[in-house]
Amino acid sequence: MIRAPANIRDTGKIPANAIDSAEGTPSTTVHIMPDYLGRTLGYAAMAAIMIAGIADGVHSVWLFGMAGFAIVWPHLAQLFSLDARKRNSSTIRQHLLLIDSAISGAFIGSLGLISISAAAIALMMMVTCFVVGGLKQWASGSLILSAAALTVFFLFNPGYAITLPPVADLLAVIVAGVYICATALFSHQQAKALRHATLLIQAQREQSIALSQKLSKYMSPQVWQTIFTGQRDARLETQRKKLAVFFSDIQGFTDLSEEMEPEALTDVLNHYLNEMSQIALKHGGTIDKFVGDSIMIFFGDPTSRGQRADTLACVSMAIDMRKHMKILRQKWRSQGIKTPLQIRMGISTGYTTVGNFGAENRMDYTIIGKEVNLASRMEHLAQPGEILVTHEAFSLIKDSIMCRDKGEVTVKGFSRPIAVYQVIDHRCDLGRNRSFMEHEHSGFTLYLDSEKVNENDRVAILQALDEAASRLRHQRD
Q1: Closest CA to 192 of 14, 354, 419
Q2: Half-sphere exposure in the Cβ direction for 7 (13 Å, CA)
Q3: How many CB atoms lie within 10 A of CB 190?
Q4: Is residue 290 within 8 Å of 314, Cβ to Cβ?
Q5: Could you tell me the pTM of the whole model?
Q6: Of 58, 174, 315, 473, whose CB neighbour count within 10 A is largest?
Q7: Average pLDDT estimate for 156-178
Q8: Is the dihedral angle over the CA atoms 154, 155, 157, 159 positive or is it negative?
Q9: Which part of the chain has CATH 3.30.70.1230?
């Protein structure tokens, strides 16, 4: 008849080992109040009220059978629903509660509807329905209880209402009070346990976020995002895609390594790779790997904006890297590094095989194919500060990027000569209206991108240029 609210674990609290040692997940199976205990309590009260009525001569002796059923039913319900609860605990709990509503209604009808005992039983039933299943369960339980009560009342007690002895009413009130208090106590314990579980889950979530952020530093952000969002599985699989492939290295880095201590050289290299990585990510490139001072980047996977846009983004990235090297050289010169470091870059566009390569327990997300080799060959052919692209890449960017035809060259691993083009600059940045200016001489470096200068900085820059021009004129005179 009377059921306990939904539960989390029989003990009513989270044990010390609520976090699973293997999985690290907080337990979410704490019981508020065991169904079996609540149902047994309610039906015991029903049996006691019946027996009190029979002893006072209000009820017929045949109701001993109903009292016996009230004592046995909780045990039968627990036994028959044990396996079903393991499969779908919530559904079975709600179905049993509807059966309890029908039985409670029949009992209330036999009491004559208006007795204090009937009201107490109805109160316990409604509280349980509302706590377990909310408003919907309360409405269903109320409807079934009312229908059963009216049916039994008009079938067996037409035209009069039964008044139970005071002892039976007192017993019903006591049982109802105890049950409601127990429900409130267990509800409080559940709320406390859930708050504790929430804190554990929050702590685990923050720990997982911190761990994932650490792991993200070992792979490209695009690849990391597709794995952690479930878009891609960590298994050995590849596909053919048309990508723009980029290679670069530092000309003069080997000579520099002979002049500097390893610690200082490491700082220079890490600073360079960090600056270049920021530029690559700004343009949407997937950073494949660092090999010493060499960088390998590709565009078009895991996400692609189309072959033309991917190739244009790759070349634009290379131009920005070349421009940014002037700033880095000036900074390194101020640190006493006199070797004029330059980068050379090669770009190729074509079909490659991209995906996870390696072993089941150690994978590397990378690309292979002749276009990868060709981009590497372009990088080796480039002069310091030069960007070389293949004919396929040139055909996709020629409307936006000014390039110079350098003819055909024979490269290792390719039987036919390869058409090579030198990247000059964005067409919009050429001529008198170009936004970018750069000049570099001994004792003087100018790097200006007028599109990025705001109005406040413009005044300060003009003042600095006027002061510099005044000093130069004064020295000449």
Answers
A1: 14
A2: 22
A3: 23
A4: no
A5: 0.56
A6: 315
A7: 65
A8: positive
A9: 239-434
Tokens 């634009």 sit on residue: 316
Decide if 132 contacts 94 (C-beta within 8 A): yes
C-alpha span between 435 and 254 (Å, rounded): 35
How far is it, in rounded angstroms, from Cα 298 to Cα 283?
11
Is the torsion defined by CA of 191, 193, 197, 200 positive or negative?
Answer: positive
Q: Which residues pair with 439 in a beta bridge?
A: 446
Q: What is the CA radius of gyration of the chain?
A: 40
Distance separating alpha carbons of residues 101 and 45, to the nearest angstrom:
15
What pLDDT shows up at residue 285? 93
Q: Is residue 160's pLDDT more than 60?
A: no
Rounded CA-CA distance 363/366 in Å is 9
Beta strands in 260-319 (DSSP E): 286-291, 294-299
Residue 17: its pLDDT value, please? 40
Out of 3.60.130.10, 3.30.70.1230, 3.40.640.10, 3.90.550.10, select the CATH number for domain 239-434: 3.30.70.1230
The two tokens of residue 309 are 């846009």
Mean pLDDT of 296-302: 93
CA–CA dist 153, 241 (Å, integer): 78
CA distance 188 to 391: 73
User: How many Cβ atoms are within 10 Å of 82's Cβ, its own excluded?
Assistant: 10
Q: State yes or no: pLDDT of 353 exceeds 80.
A: yes
